[in-house]
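Re-run requested by the PI after the first attempt was lost when the workstation crashed. Everything re-entered from the original request form. Ligand of interest: protoporphyrin IX containing FE.
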Amino acid sequence: SILIAVKALLRWRTAVEPSNPGAALPGPTGLPLVGNLLDLKKPELPVHLAELAKRFGPVYRLRFGCQTLVVLNSTEVIREALVRKWADFAGRPHTFTGEAISFGGKDLSLGDYTPTWKIQRKLVYASLQHCFKTNLEAVVTGEARKLCEEFRNSCGISLDPAHDFSMHVCNIICSLAFRTTFEKDDKDFLEIHACLDEIVQRWGSPSIGALDSFPILRKFPNAAWKSMLAVVQKRDSIVRRYLKQHKDTFQTQEVRDITDTLIKFLRDKEQEEGSSVKGAEEFSEEHVHMAIVDLFVGGTETTASWLAWAVAFLVHRPEVQDRIYSEICEVIGVERLPVYADRDRLPFLNATITEVLRLRPVAPLAIPHATTKDTSVAGYFIPKGVTVIPNLYGAHHDESKWRDPTHFRPERFADATNPRKAAQGIIPFSAGARVCLGETVAKVELFIFTAFLLREFKFLPPDSGELPDLKGNYGIVLKPKPYTVKITPRATLHA
Ligand code: HEM
């Protein structure tokens, strides 16, 4: 049996590692000085990078300034890098702009793979898991109920649901991080929400990105960067205020929320003389601050954009809404509200959620990774310190894997012989050491919100008859263009 195991291992290695060790990475020829910068400035970057993969294969390189980028475009190569060789690809590139907005990289999502980052991630992960086991579903259900109530009051009116999605999803993070929820028109809440929205939008802008690639530009005035720093300052003053309130009322015996978990670690460390945990000495209040910021940034626009995409696609295919509604009525009935434990009994709803995640992975290029040592992908040598972009959008639209990859067809998962296995072909939350920290939270949110909304309402085109544009705006977060829908109540529930 040892011989069989060794043979299987050898077969697996040759399957995932083609025999081109040391071959130079292919890639498009660039222009003098700027290299492939024009490729990186394309408005629909993930789509363009997927197009390049048709010419250069699933792994290729782009150059600009003095930097080389490696782009990964298929599920296989992304999994090889981020899962099989997770430690080699667990880093984040050090960038001028990233460090300027995160106290020098003391950040969960932009922070490099260091012992202190590992502590920060572990603490937040454990805390989110604790929420999952205790109050997460109640918090999500509470927000889904409020959203339905608001939609109930707007029935028959044409409206853009994006803002409502954003507000309710942001409130979930407020609850988990600060054990507080806000009313829709609360001043602090509107301010936090506006700051996050602006940071996510500005962060992807070319004039800010150029500061990282061309250091000389930092010497010149840059209006976009100046207003970004002003928003970051506002963000920090709000977070600082909540952090102070938490520190002032903290009690060791009662850990109220994620912020308390992080404060507790800080306090325990201060009481210990010389912590034995590697990286603990460097863990500071700024790490706590940035972890909270990241939960808001990572957990608001992503889920909210996903909900907006789901409604946009469903308006195009009303029969999918009807099938989900019938499934919910048959399995759960209309007497009670759906709960997360119902998810395995609602295969068509699950297939629809998976299909929206496939078609519109809301973080289409994940967050850039960096190699932590010399390594390889698909047999190509990749040196330490290179920036690596996992093109999740490209992997989800790979024509060799998916039939009609650009079409919205939940049936591809619902009718698969093994739907669970079929869903493993997508990686919307990325994978490995930097896999989305909020994946569990997001999955509960997507299920509960979609089930609540489709059980009670039907989403129709507005009176103008204009269907939502399915092209979207490609930034760090892939958002649909603003659209309006008419929300109508389902007859049985209404009665
Ligand atoms: C990172 C997807 C919701 C928190 C990421 C990444 C992706 C992603 C692709 C980048 C992983 C990488 O760099 O390889 C999504 C999707 C969501 C979602 C599709 C919803 C539909 C959330 C939520 C939270 C969250 C609800 C918070 C509760 C984070 C954080 C990171 C991250 C903190 C940084 C992780 C790290 O660098 O170690 N997410 N996300 N996300 N996400 Fe999410």
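Saved to the shared folder this time. Residues 116 and 279 are 4 Å apart (CA to CA).
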